[in-house]
Design goal:
Layout (H helix, E strand, L loop, with lengths): L3 E3 L2 H10 L9 H11 L2 E4 L3 E6 L2 E6 L6 E5 L4 E4 L1 H16 L4 E5 L11 E7 L2 E6 L8 E5 L3 E7 L4 E7 L2 E2 H6 L1
Parallel strand pairs: 1-13
Antiparallel strand pairs: 1-5, 2-3, 3-4, 4-5, 6-12, 7-8, 7-10, 8-9, 10-11, 11-12
């Protein structure tokens, strides 16, 4: 089952806009399987925890575990310097500004308490939505979703860990297609 992904991001964004939390119960078994597959190399920072192994990759937010992503199959991470991470952030902000990608950045452990804590840019339907304040500082977490890949960046103590994952097959569609 390599290359499958479990990603409720779209449902969570739609729920944020509508004010109704989506029903993620149908994803529970797939989520559990993805988490088990990714057990191996754990990591965490102030807001998110992650695992990766030759069988998978998984992350979730500590205070909001419904915001997660799971990928089955080999996923390679790369350690980056602060300078390399800054270049990725600048590129991500530029792509989001051109509406080429959906972007989520969390700068502080306060998550979404003020506009300076986060920045989101995404498209729902034909509407482009931006929330928070885009800043050129290094974040605790960044997620850039393009039609071709997902890029996730985690801040550690003195370095950054990035995962660039090719677009996968959504798990439930893949099983029932």
């Amino acid at each position: 089952m390599t290359g499958f992904e479990i990603d409720p991001q779209r449902q969570l964004l739609e729920g944020m806009e509508s004010g109704e939390f989506p029903d993620l119960k149908p994803l529970a078994l797939a989520r559990e399987y993805a988490l088990e597959s990714a057990q191996g190399n754990p990591g965490e920072n102030e807001i998110v925890r992650w695992w990766h192994s030759p069988e998978g990759f998984y992350y979730e937010f500590k205070r909001f575990p419904a915001a997660f992503y799971g990928r089955l199959g080999l996923v390679q991470g790369e350690y980056l310097t602060a300078h390399q991470a800054q270049e990725l952030v600048w590129e991500a902000l530029a792509r989001a500004d051109k509406e080429e990608a959906d972007l989520m950045i969390f700068y502080t452990a306060s998550l979404m308490q003020s506009d300076q804590d986060f920045f989101m840019a995404y498209t729902l339907g034909h509407t482009r939505i931006e929330r928070g304040e885009a800043r050129y500082v290094l974040p605790l977490f960044m997620r850039l979703q393009t039609p071709q890949h997902l890029l996730v960046l985690f801040r550690l103590q003195d370095e950054y860990l990035a995962f660039k994952v090719p677009k996968g097959q959504p798990l439930l569609q893949g099983l029932f297609a």
